[in-house]
């Protein structure tokens, strides 16, 4: 039975069960379609292909490459890499790129992230829908076009160049000795951390003692899911930081493009605080070069990001999602962008996200001053936040309207906007300061709530009041 590609081709990538939904034949058809829709029209002579540690990756990547080369386009096989390593290859080689990964999804899944030359994202509106439709035609029996001379596959190791490039973007000269626990979650950070933070790629050693957790590459994730966004998956790192007396803990997801931080007490540091910290550093670097700075933050990052960064830079608010961040960054030539999901984007990294570069900034900030990580994080965490709370509802649209009506009546002075779901902001010097965002999931009948306030009591009451409206049955 032919696979229905609409089930596995999402808004920004491909994600499905292997082989039931994403089989080698499907990968081959997608490779051919990628060559026809992206590589050939863009005049690209080669496509970079990388993969994470999942057992299904080699066969899928091999068949995808076969589809690409059948259209006369060469393939540069960079083998095992992180997603930001693939972006580095796409940017440095100026070639379209494809990464086989399902990020933090369970072992039975795999997926594909695609980009154009220079790590420019390929999403539904920028080629992914056309790739899906063309691959579907081929799977349904359409005769594919084949070049007279097929392309070649060439292997190339980019890990050392990737590590050196990241090191070149952060000044680590004042780094004091630090002990750092790193939880790779059996994902690709087990390959990249020794290269970037250590000397595995031939770079000079840093004054870091790295305590490794789960560095063995294993796509079955035997210890815990490689998704640090879930608090339970940080527990091993938090215990290890305390037991080793470490200065800091770092956790990466499966494809190592997101980085989460734990302070010396084992407390998780908000990604919004990291956004503010790294943003301040990048703004200072931009201003030192005599240029005005612009940074991007999605609308569920802490108000502290706007408060702190807005004093010395232009802060542009955007919707949640990497495609919106990357597009907005490119439009404004923004030096940095952050999301509360711990994706961090850098202009000097082709506007792409890289958790490893964010980690280097955190280490540089911590290691260039005497205070512990917790004290440093507190500087960027002045408000109380709920974290994201998911509620299953029958009609997300009607529920959102009910909440909007209630708050417009109760707080006519509040600012209401619908950039991404519903945001109600009540933040001035005459009233208690708070805001919340209520967004519908793209794939499930869920509403996602984020609340922040100037103090914990206000946040708790607001959170509970909004949730009571969300869970109230419509009359």
From TrEMBL:
Protein name per UniProt: Phosphomannomutase/phosphoglucomutase
Source organism: Isoptericola sediminis
Keywords per UniProt: Isomerase, Magnesium, Metal-binding, Phosphoprotein
Biological process terms in GO annotation: carbohydrate metabolic process
Family stated for the protein in its record: Belongs to the phosphohexose mutase family.
Domain Alpha-D-phosphohexomutase C-terminal: 388-467
Domain (Alpha-D-phosphohexomutase alpha/beta/alpha): residue spans on this chain: 7-137, 161-266, 282-383
Cofactor: Mg(2+)
Superkingdom, natural source: Bacteria
């Amino acid at each position: 039975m032919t696979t229905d590609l609409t089930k596995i081709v999402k808004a920004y990538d491909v994600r499905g069960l292997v082989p039931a939904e994403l089989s080698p034949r499907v990968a081959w058809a997608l490779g051919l379609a990628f060559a026809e829709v992206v590589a050939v029209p863009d005049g690209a002579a080669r496509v970079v292909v990388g993969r994470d540690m999942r057992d299904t990756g080699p066969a899928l990547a091999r068949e995808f490459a076969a589809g690409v080369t059948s259209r006369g386009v060469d393939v540069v096989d960079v083998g095992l890499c992180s997603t930001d390593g693939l972006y580095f290859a796409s940017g440095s080689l100026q070639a379209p790129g494809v990464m086989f990964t399902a990020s933090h999804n369970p072992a039975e899944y795999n997926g594909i992230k695609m980009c154009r030359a220079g790590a420019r994202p390929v999403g539904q509106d920028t080629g992914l829908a056309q790739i899906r439709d063309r691959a579907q035609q081929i799977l349904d029996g359409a005769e594919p076009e084949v070049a007279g001379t097929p392309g070649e596959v060439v292997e190339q190791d980019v890990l050392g160049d990737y590590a050196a490039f990241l090191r070149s973007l952060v000044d680590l000269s004042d780094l004091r000795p630090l002990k750092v626990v790193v939880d790779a979650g059996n994902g690709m950070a087990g390959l990249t951390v020794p290269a970037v933070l250590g000397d595995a790629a031939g770079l000079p050693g840093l004054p870091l003692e790295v305590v490794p957790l789960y560095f063995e590459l294993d796509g079955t994730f035997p210890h815990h899911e490689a998704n640090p966004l879930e608090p339970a998956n940080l527990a091993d790192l938090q215990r290890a930081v305390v037991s080793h007396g470490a200065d800091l803990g770092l956790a990466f997801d499966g494809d190592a493009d997101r980085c989460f931080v734990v302070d010396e007490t084992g407390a998780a540091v908000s990604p919004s605080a990291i956004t503010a910290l790294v943003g301040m550093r990048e703004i200072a670097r931009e201003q030192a070069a005599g240029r005005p700075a612009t940074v991007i933050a999605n609308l569920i990052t802490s108000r502290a990001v706007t408060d702190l960064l807005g004093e010395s830079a232009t802060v542009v608010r955007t919707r949640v999602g990497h495609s919106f961040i990357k597009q907005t960054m490119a439009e404004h030539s923004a030096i940095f962008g952050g999301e509360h999901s711990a994706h961090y984007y850098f202009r000097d990294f082709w506007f792409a996200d890289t958790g490893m570069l964010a980690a280097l900034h955190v280490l540089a900030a911590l290691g260039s001053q005497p205070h512990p990580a917790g004290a440093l994080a507190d500087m960027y965490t002045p408000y109380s936040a709920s974290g994201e709370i998911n509620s299953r509802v029958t009609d997300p649209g009607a529920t959102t309207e009910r909440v909007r009506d209630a708050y417009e009546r109760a707080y006519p002075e509040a600012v209401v906007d619908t950039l991404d779901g519903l945001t109600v902001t009540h933040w001035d010097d005459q009233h208690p300061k708070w805001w919340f965002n209520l967004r519908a999931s793209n794939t499930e009948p869920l509403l996602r709530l984020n609340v922040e306030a100037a103090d914990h009591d206000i946040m708790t009451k607001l959170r509970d009041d909004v949730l009571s409206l969300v869970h109230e049955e419509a009359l």
